[in-house]
Amino acid sequence: MPFTAEEMHARVLYRDPDLLILDKPFNLPVHYGTKSHDHLELYLPFLQEEMEEPPRLAHRLDKDTTGCLLLGRHKRAAARIAKLFTFGYIAKTYWAVTIGAPEEKEGRIDLALTKQRVPGASRMFVSPKGKEAVTDYRVLAEADGFAWVELYPRTGRMHQLRAHLAAVGHPILGDPMYGDHPLPPAAMHLHARAVTVPWGPRTEPPLSVTAPLPAHMRATLERHGFPLPE
Hints:
Layout: H1 5-10, E1 12-15, E2 19-24, E3 56-57, E4 66-72, H2 75-86, E5 91-99, E6 106-110, E7 113-118, E8 121-126, E9 134-143, E10 146-153, H3 160-167, E11 190-197, E12 207-210, H4 215-223
Parallel strand pairs: 4-11
Antiparallel strand pairs: 1-2, 2-4, 3-4, 5-10, 5-11, 6-9, 7-8, 9-10, 11-12
């Protein structure tokens, strides 16, 4: 198996008796698929520890998206996390490197999206008949025709960030599906940087967790002189 138990344990960002937050690796689907037999669920038994069952996925990230992934350590916890996502109580922050930068350095992309089948996959398209999809963003830095962008999805549509950025003319570097004009050869540069979860008693502040940049994104930021985070 490509990932050892030690490597998966090293990717744990947070753990308590109910919740586990994992730094999801690049190029690893969360579920089994006809095109990929290696997937995250194969490795969840490595993280079972004292529990009666392996942790359960409570949401998903795309295969080439890295960073914060929430798992319930038992069935009830997974259902609770899913409900928090459904009602919009979990705040997510993503980082992306895009081709060019939006003219407005801070703003909102409010474009409804609809899912359609394309050869071998499903893809989201902007459509007035689609479902509401809202993404807030701010440009952190730009250089050499690229931008480092922070994204705050306010809805949770499939491929929302990728489709929205492509729709405004600034696809994510390395995106194999939404890069409608030729992109430089690269891994996809989309990272679930942070999550904020109202997890403890109401008297406690929300839980906030961040994931370190994957190596390919860190290398890109360094190459173009972007200020690197700690």
